[in-house]
Write a structure and sequence with these properties.
249 residues, mainly alpha, 10 helices, 0% strand
């Protein structure tokens, strides 16, 4: 599969820009599959005190993260930043942490009180959260709470997989107590994950920060926050820093 031979069956409009914006995350998730399999397999081996294949699994995780980054770069120019910011971004925002809808949205005939739901967010994909859990990268404070809350928007089996991996044998600890080669390979995985998060920050600057500084419209509250409700640049920089700080000595 590639972005050139994929299209949406259902969409909010007929633009190719929105198709690209929604299909790129699909391809990023597809690239994450080898890493997820490697993490699960590595933990199964570590449960038996077997590190013999750990180096190979770390190499797979690193390659998978690099592939995810390459695909993420394809967002531009397929999705026009101005079209995304003014036409599609307001449609993807939710009514949780939305100042224009502080009480949420009332679903008539469904609930007697307003409901609050977050808008679309990359954090609602289990791919990177699974890799975080597998590499032992943890996030605290508001960032950590937000990531945990986003699991409510995932299929239950995927949210459960994140918890299962987080509670499983520690790949990080296995590398910490091992040879320099394993430590270096683990750190290379962290660097690849850090670079993936840097690429996300670049997209934020291109698709949100720059257009918002040029011409703000009805969705002014989205100029500094993600559609999921976070202070986007601050959030992404913090979780990238969390990743860098896990580097083994």
């Amino acid at each position: 599969m590639s972005i050139e031979n994929l299209s949406l069956i259902y969409s909010l409009d007929s633009s190719r820009d929105l198709e690209v914006f929604l299909l790129i995350p699909l391809l990023v998730e597809l690239c994450s599959v080898p890493a997820v399999i490697a993490i699960i397999t590595a933990q199964q081996s570590l449960a038996k005190n077997d590190k013999s294949d750990l180096l190979a699994h770390l190499a797979t995780i690193k390659t998978s993260l690099q592939d995810m980054r390459v695909v993420l770069k394809q967002m531009f120019p397929g999705c026009n930043p101005a079209v995304f910011y003014h036409q599609h971004r307001p449609l993807l925002s939710g009514w949780e942490d939305n100042p224009s809808m502080p009480d949420g949205l009332l679903y008539e005939g469904v609930s007697d009180s307003p409901q609050k739901f977050s808008g679309g967010s990359a954090a609602q994909s289990s791919a990177v959260q699974v890799i975080d859990a597998g590499l032992g990268v943890s996030h605290s404070g508001r960032e950590g709470k937000f990531l945990v809350r986003m699991r409510d928007y995932m299929p239950p089996n995927q949210a459960g997989l994140i918890s299962h991996i987080a509670e499983g044998p520690s790949i990080r600890d296995a590398c910490l107590s091992a040879t320099g080669e394993l430590k270096n390979s683990y750190n290379e995985c962290l660097k690849a994950l850090e670079l993936l998060r840097t690429e996300h920050l670049i997209l934020v600057a291109r698709y949100i920060t720059t257009p918002s500084n040029t011409n703000r419209g009805e969705a002014d509250h989205l100029a500094d926050q993600g559609t999921g409700g976070t202070a986007l640049a601050t959030f992404l920089k913090r979780i990238r820093q969390d990743t860098a700080e896990m580097k083994l000595p």
